[in-house]
Design brief:
The complex is a heterodimer of chains A (359) and B (178). With 359 residues, chain A is mainly α. Chain A has one domain (10-357). Helices cover 75% and strands 0% of the residues of chain A. The longest helix of chain A is centred in the N-terminal third of the chain and has 32 residues, at 34-65. The radius of gyration of chain A is 20 Å and the shape is globular. Chain B is of the alpha+beta class. Chain B has 2 domains: 4-52 and 130-176, 2-Layer Sandwich (Alpha-Beta Plaits); 56-121, no CATH class. In chain B, 22% of the residues are buried.
Chain lengths: 359, 178
């Protein structure tokens, strides 16, 4: 493993500069309306966490199950998993601003339901959880990278996936569910985890299939078909879990569960929900159903990139509704561009290095 | 005359490689109505035989759509028109609750249509075929590699086709059909 600083392409350098400028813009906006901007930042951070963390999940799944798809995607997944330390660093603004951002952190919060949630929802414990969860993720990412070609990979992945599911659940409860403290959902952790794997797979498939420098991998129609099927499985799993969560809430009709869905389906946000059902589930499903589409590089890459981009909508759906007076803020795209610019810095070089290493 | 698709020449080859070469050669000469029989799947043979018309995917899609929308219709009819019951004040047409059953029926109907359709596409109700009259054809399930040049091929001429096959050095050439 080389410790050299990865070479950065010109495009990535420009992206990073734009990113820093966008984050500076966020900071300026944040002086004016800290809560709004922090929420935007959380949204953008959760979006860019997905490809990094989801890649670790996919690497673990592949170490356990094997299969050609994993070898084809491995360079892209390895490169994305190396973004985790950066994401840990970029979580700092959320941790610093937690007292402003999260409704439960407000000591004057008048919600009587909060009293018996204080043992979990308090600032010191919240910070400890964030540190522990990230330490475990970094350890998982490092561990699977080190063991990839060894026989120990399977056992590490089996235990690692259990740990992965538990830590993603804790993260989803802390950084998504706790925005609406009264709400609870038994599906949210695994749902967020699946969405993250979907984002990671979408990005990895798009990058791997379209970059000319991945010529060392032969893109036979069979291999493309496998990648399309992986995307299909993740789209279906995500759609199934999301719908089941909604269905149980709809049937039970209890205040502690509907509190999360009401601002989402009884306001203009419902159009985002309709968009997700149509364009994040129905359309990719219909395209991926066709073998001809899956086996064509242009179509497969298009669907993969689309699924990755559509995750913006899903993360927005998870985080934004109901927490501020105006639906969207200028800081949303700024924070997204800012974190994205930093995320790309060095990604291509990491991927090329992993490509040269071979499977 | 309309039995042409059950006639033609059946040629037996030494091994999978020879069969594959023969099929490519025949395709090169413009024959399209070729069928091959081997004791095990031969890689590249399906591609060498050329694009095959296969309506099963369409049938599966139609089955899935019929199952899914049919179930939604049934659920709507049962709970809105035929026997409306007030369940905790929910609307009679409870679409979210209708979806799981519709999903299951989509999968069931797609699978059943696919399997039954495959049986019919394989000509299942029929139990005999002129190919079975060819001596040694049962070797196709042991060590025989056969290619069948069908008589309904636009380029098919009995004498010419026989010559074309003979030039590929098969182990044997037999007539299929009367």
């Amino acid at each position: 493993m080389s410790r050299r600083w990865p070479r950065v392409s010109r495009g990535e350098g420009i992206a990073a500069v734009i990113g820093v400028l966008a984050l500076a813009g966020c900071l300026l906006l944040g002086l004016h309306a800290p809560r709004t901007v922090l929420l935007s930042y959380l949204f953008a951070w959760l979006f860019w966490l997905a490809p990094a963390l989801g890649s670790v999940g996919l690497l673990l799944v592949h170490a356990l199950t094997g299969g050609d798809w994993g070898f084809a995607l491995r360079p892209a997944l390895l490169a994305a998993s190396r973004r985790l330390p950066l994401m840990a660093l970029l979580l700092l603004p959320v941790l610093i601003g937690a007292a402003v951002l999260f409704p439960w952190a407000d000591p004057q919060a008048a919600d009587p339901n909060l009293a018996h949630q204080r043992w979990w929802l308090n600032l010191p414990f919240f910070l400890v959880r964030a540190v522990v969860v990230f330490a475990l993720w970094l350890w998982l990412a490092h561990g699977i990278r080190r063991r990839l070609a060894t026989p120990a990979a399977g056992r590490f992945a089996a235990g690692g996936l259990i740990l992965y599911t538990l830590t993603v659940s804790v993260a989803a409860i802390d950084w998504v569910a706790s925005l609406v403290p009264r709400w609870h959902s038994t599906t949210l952790g695994i749902l967020v985890g699946t969405a993250q794997m979907l984002a990671a797979a979408g990005l990895a498939v798009w990058i791997s299939v379209t970059r000319p420098d991945s010529g060392s991998v032969l893109w036979t129609s069979r291999r493309l078909n496998d990648l399309g099927s992986i995307l299909m499985v993740l789209v279906l799993a995500w759609g199934y879990l999301a719908f089941m969560d909604y269905l149980t809430v709809w049937i039970a009709d209890l205040p502690s569960e509907t509190v999360w869905y009401l601002p989402r389906v009884k306001s203009a946000w419902r159009w985002l929900g309709a968009f997700l059902v149509l364009f994040h589930l129905a359309l990719p499903f219909a395209v991926l159903l066709s073998r001809q589409a899956k086996q064509r590089v242009a179509w497969l890459a298009g669907v993969a990139l689309w699924l990755f981009v559509a995750q913006i909508g899903y993360v927005a759906w998870l985080v934004l509704p109901g927490l501020r007076a105006h639906a969207l803020a200028w800081s949303d795209p700024l924070a997204w561009i800012g974190l994205g610019g930093l995320w790309w810095l060095g990604y291509g070089a990491r991927r090329r290095a992993a490509l040269e290493l071979g499977p | 005359m309309n039995r042409l698709h059950e006639q033609g020449w059946l040629a037996r080859f030494e091994d999978a490689g020879a069969l594959l070469m023969a099929v490519r050669e025949l395709r090169g000469r413009g024959y399209t109505q070729l069928e091959a029989y081997t004791p095990y799947p031969v890689e590249g043979l399906a591609q060498a035989l050329g694009p095959m018309r296969n309506r099963i995917p369409l049938l599966v899609l139609l089955g899935g759509l019929a199952g899914g929308f049919g179930t939604l219709l049934l659920e709507w009819y049962a709970s809105v028109i035929d026997y409306p019951i007030n369940v905790g004040g929910r609307p009679n047409a409870s679409w979210p609750a209708f979806i799981p059953a519709a999903l299951e029926m989509t999968i069931l109907f797609a699978a059943v249509f696919g399997i039954v359709g495959m049986f019919f596409a394989n000509g299942l109700p029929r139990l005999h075929h002129p190919l079975f009259d060819v001596p040694c054809f049962e070797a196709a399930s042991r060590d025989g590699f056969f290619v069948w040049l069908r008589a309904d091929d636009p380029c098919f001429d009995p004498a010419l086709a026989h010559d074309d096959l003979a030039r590929l050095a098969p182990l044997a050439i037999d007539r299929v059909g009367p």
